[in-house]
Design brief:
Helix content: 55-70%
CATH architecture of the largest domain: Orthogonal Bundle
Number of helices: 5
Number of strands: 3
Number of domains: 2
Radius of gyration: 28 Å
């Protein structure tokens, strides 16, 4: 809300300053006048537009959700490397302090993107296998074994 008010105030200030310059009869060709117009009209207008664009964009919430999901995916992959490439939703939920449904959804998304495969044990437990993670040593910070 503050961004909207600030943006509107800057645009109003810019419009009033432009009106003042138009009524002043100052020569627009003068470098001093051009500099004054730049500082008092153009800069506040640009600031107002930037504030309004940020406030009205609404993209920040979607962007934050996207960043959160990328962080969860990265943590799942890190966990998979530490556990020889096999994870269950319960393990992920416990390690990352997520609801099990959200952990399962993130794991299923990784399966859809073909980052992981889904296996079922003889006991009926769903195990997510990360084949690439098997080639990493979980204690070496992501270095290849033997490399």
């Amino acid at each position: 809300m503050g961004r909207k008010i600030g943006g509107a105030a800057l645009l109003l200030l810019s419009a009033l300053m432009l009106l003042g310059f138009a009524r002043s009869g100052a020569s627009i060709g003068s470098p001093t006048t051009l500099f004054a117009v730049l500082i008092t009209v153009v800069l506040p207008a640009a600031g107002g537009v930037a504030l309004l664009r940020g406030a009205l964009g609404g993209n920040s919430r979607a962007r934050m959700q996207q960043l959160r999901q990328q962080t969860i995916d990265a943590e799942i992959l890190r966990l998979a490397m530490a556990r020889q490439g096999k994870l269950t939703a319960v393990e992920v939920a416990s390690a990352l302090a997520l609801p099990e449904s959200e952990a399962r959804s993130s794991l299923d998304s990784l399966v859809t993107r073909e980052v992981a495969d889904l296996d079922v044990t003889d006991e009926g437990v769903l195990v997510y296998s990360f084949h690439e993670a098997r080639y990493f040593d979980g204690n070496s910070g992501g270095k290849l074994l033997g490399g």
